[in-house]
Structure formats: structure tokens, C-alpha cells
Amino acid sequence: MKALITGASSGIGLAMATYLADLGWDLILVARREDRLEKLQKKLKTDVRIIALDLQIEKNCFKLYDMVKDEEIDFLINNAGFGLFGNTFETDLNRELEMIDLNIKAYHILTKLFLVDFYKKDKGRILNVASSAGFLAGPRLNTYYATKNYCLKFTMAIYEELRRAKSNVHISVLCPGPVNTEFNKVAGGKFSINSLSKEKVAKYAIDKSLKNKLIIIPGLMTKLGVFINRFVPWKLSMRFIYEIQYRKTR
User: Fold this and answer.
1) Residues whose CB is less than 8 angstroms from the CB of residue 229 and which lie 6 or more positions away in sequence, other chains included
2) CA angle 231, 197, 8 (to 5 degrees)
3) Is pTM beyond 0.85 here?
4) Which pLDDT value is given to residue 26?
5) What is the C-alpha separation between 230 and 233, in angstroms, rounded?
6) Domains of the chain and CATH, by start
């Protein structure tokens, strides 16, 4: 069994790599920071190939696929991504476009390319890492929330297409709440509420994905939040989210 994980040098991606290696999976790990990948490679027990690529660059997504398409990959995990705090009228447009390139375009390209291969073979699975933000609108973290909405709905629609085709290919989407990773540091904020450990989230996500669960939401409080938000008016929801994100930058 072999899995390919993007964004594998830190956070949830690193924790997923560690957990899958413990389960006996061989791995292809992809991230920008080669030094971190090398360090992780030395720690893992199974066969690990590392590829240093910046997937914000569109051609690198196709390059990655070309590099590994002849390998027998069973599991694709799209995990690379980042956020950016601030009002949309104040944040840097170039940084937001980079986020769209990584959080949407890279996910779409890699999902599409591997999905076609998996469908032809009638086997394989994909796990796209979104966020509980995918169910919401996110003032002060607007572009990030929008990208995760795309990831969530994109994955859900593919699930139904595969189900109707009676395919043995499976797709899942991970929608965690706050996780203790580098996310807020990169985005320019800090946690204002308790977060889950990346190890707990990674294990939960992998276990549920291997059981063919579509939407994976770790943590009781996050599950409750997603459920309750269905009954909250949009304007009230956005006011509440604005306050949460504002506190992260105070």
C-alpha cells in the first residue's frame, strides 16, 4: 500500500505520514521544505520517497503527477494549504491569489488527475483536507473560508458521481476545527479557543477515510458547531465568526 501526501513537512500532513507509516504504508511525501522532509524520512519505518515542490505553482502540480503516475499509488491526501487573516479590503491580493492557487487549484488538479486513474483501475481513495470553515462564510479570514467551501463541495459532488457510477473508488473530506499546527502563525494570528492535537486529528481522519466516511469532522465541539450553525441566520453567524477571527489578531 502506498500513499501520497502533500503538505507533509508539518502539521496534520506530518502527523498523517507518521500514522500511516506506523500502519505499514509506504509513502511519497511532498512539500516545499526539503530539509524537513528529509528529517521526517529518517524517522519513519517504511519506504519513504520525498519530493520538494511548491504546489502554488500550477506546472508543479502536473510535474508531480508525471513523477509518480507510474507508481502504484492507493491513497492521495491533498493537505497543503494556508490562510491569511485580515479584512479583504486590507489584505494582500497577491498572497490571496497564491492561496487560491494552493488551496483550490492544486487540490483540483491533483484530485482530477488521480481520480481519472483510480476510476480506470476501479480502486483507490482520496482524502481532501478542508476545514469546518467550509460550512461557513469567514469575515477576516475570507479567502481561506471560501477556498475550503470549494474543497468541501467539490469533494461531496465527486462522492455522488462515484456512488452513481458504482465505483470502488472512495473520496473523503476532512473538516477539522482549530488544530494545533503552524496555521495561525503563517496566517498572522493566534488561537483564541482550545485546539485539537494534530496527531489526534490525523489518526481520526485516516481511520474514518479508510472506512469510506465522506465528511470527517473530528471533535465533539466542532461537530456541534457545524450542526448548530445550520439553524443560525447567516448575518448572525458572520458576526460571531468575525469576533472569533478578530481576537486571533489581537
Assistant:
1) 135, 136, 237
2) 105
3) yes
4) 98
5) 8
6) 2-248 (3.40.50.720)
